[in-house]
Amino acid sequence: MALYFVFLGKQGSGKSTYMKGIAASGRLARISSGELFRDEIRHNTELGKKIEKLVNSGKLVPDKLVVNLLKKRLEHSDCSRGAIFDGFPRTIGQARALEKILEKKGGKINLALNFAAPEKVLLERLIGRRQCMLCGKIYNLKSNPPRVEGKCDECGAGLYHREDDKPEAIKKRWKAYDKRTKPLVEYYKKKGILHTIDASKEIDKVMKDVGKKLKNLGLN
Ligand SMILES: [Zn+2]
Questions:
Q1: Among 162, 191, 212, 215, which one carries the catalytic annotation?
Q2: Is 180 noted as a catalytic residue in this protein?
């Protein structure tokens, strides 16, 4: 039986990092709505043109469109063991739509992992984040600094502080998260499939917590 997971957590909770690790070790597909959008844009499809227009004008991509993309994506063979959803669902409406898609495939959301940490911890993490301009590698001035200040260990290029990692931008995104996505925590709790992870701990410890939970579900 295929397993499907939803990951919830604010920007800075590190959920993307965990998702990649878990998807690889469990041989599950990681489906990111952002990547699906970028693929369509890159291939210059009709849908891609529509999405690009919306994104460029700062508008949200409508649920119906996202759902159709997901439906198509779930048909790929790499989803045979299941999938982890990244950046989706973001609203209760999207969560319900996802359930319908999975139901048709004889599946359901088996687990919603909520990566929670105090905002202070998350902010500290994000403010110290630096990314390589060339290869995209991410550093943290506090927990994972480059060997030479301001230079990438891998390729030697300069590091920069992304606009969306600056406090004003972060707080804006958190506000949107609280408004649109946080209700999902309650939603999945009511369904009895929510598991909250303390994301303020070290990566290794968080990974262990997640691993335990997944083992209980029969995934190793
Ligand atoms: Zn680099």
A1: 162
A2: no
The answer to whether the beta carbons of residues 122 and 11 sit under 8 Å apart is yes
DSSP 151: B
Which CATH superfamily does the domain covering 3-118+181-216 fall into?
A: P-loop containing nucleotide triphosphate hydrolases (3.40.50.300)
pLDDT per residue as tens digits for the range 100-151: 999 999 999 999 999 999 999 999 888 899 999 999 898 999 888 999 999 9
Catalytic site includes residue 162: yes
Whole-number Å distance between alpha carbons of 6 and 146: 32
> Is 191 a known active-site residue?
no
Local structure of residue 118 (DSSP, 8 states): -
**Which helix or strand (DSSP H or E) is residue 4 part of?**
strand 3-9
The pLDDT, as a whole number, for residue 220 is 58
Asked if residue 89 has pLDDT above 80, the reply is: yes
- Write down the pTM of the prediction: 0.81
Each residue's pLDDT tens digit, 203-216 = 788 888 888 888 88
Q: Which of 161, 147, 142, 162 is nearest to 202 (CA)?
A: 142
Report DSSP letters for 39-58, one per residue.
HHHHTT-HHHHHHHHHHHTT
CA–CA separation, 68 vs 71, rounded Å? 5
Residue 22: enclosing H or E segment and its boundaries?
helix 15-26
Domain range summary for the chain, segments of one domain joined by +: 3-118+181-216
